[in-house]
């Protein structure tokens, strides 16, 4: 409608005009009279997710579920949808540190906050990652730190190897999404697809 130079008022009228349609529900499709705006609001309340199961030995895909119902939703949440991966990215940081610096999984690291200085890391301000529950102190070996998803240890490793090397490792392991060369990637800020 915008391409046809339709006014915003006319577009809003169309979006609020009740129309006969069939909408998805968890109990099957329902024929109803809804405005396009109401149908959008209806669909916003439905959880949309994707799942892929892969054989770790061969890489063969065993299951691929791109959404809740392909008839109603053609968007593939396995290949097309991208979300921040969070702590699932941390093993890539550890793998880089072990590969680049020959660190051992038994190596102990102090559980203290690490500062990424804005000048050194080309940041807008200093970045100091925090642990969940603000728990610090003592030492942890890399194996336990990864198992417990300790942010400070992952940040320490990132500071040792740098984001460009972690990004290179991620690429070598098959991640093709946008991975900025920033320290924050160590805590899983990149948007990556399930695939």
Tell me the layout of helices and strands.
Layout: H1 8-15, E1 19-23, E2 30-34, H2 36-44, E3 51-54, E4 61-65, E5 83-84, H3 90-101, E6 108-110, H4 118-121, E7 139-141, H5 142-147, H6 151-161, H7 163-172, E8 191-192
Antiparallel strand pairs: 1-2, 3-4, 5-8, 6-7
Helix pairs in contact: 3-6, 3-7
What does this structure look like?
It is a single chain. The protein is built from 7 helices and 8 strands. It is an alpha+beta fold. The chain folds into 3 domains: 46 residues, no CATH class; 33 residues, no CATH class; 109 residues, 3-Layer(aba) Sandwich (Beta-lactamase), CATH 3.40.710. Helix 3 packs across helix 7. The radius of gyration is 23 Å and the shape is elongated. The chain starts with 7 loop residues before the first helix and ends with a strand.
CATH topology of the largest domain: Beta-lactamase
Question: Major sheet, described briefly?
Answer: 2 strands, antiparallel
The N- to C-terminal Cα distance equals 35 Å
Secondary structure tally: strands: 8
Structural class: alpha+beta
Question: What would you give as the CATH superfamily of the largest domain?
Answer: DD-peptidase/beta-lactamase superfamily
CATH architecture of the largest domain: 3-Layer(aba) Sandwich
Could you say which overall geometry the principal axes of the C-alpha atoms support?
elongated
- Helical segment tally? 7
| Helix residue percentage | 25-40%
Rg calc: 23 Å
Give the class-level CATH name of the largest domain: Alpha Beta
Number of domains: 3
Percent in strands: 5-15%
Q: Give, in order, the helices and strands.
A: HEEHEEEHEHEHHHE
**What low-confidence regions span 5 or more consecutive residues with pLDDT below 50?**
none
Mean pLDDT: 96
Sheet with most strands: strand arrangement: 1-2
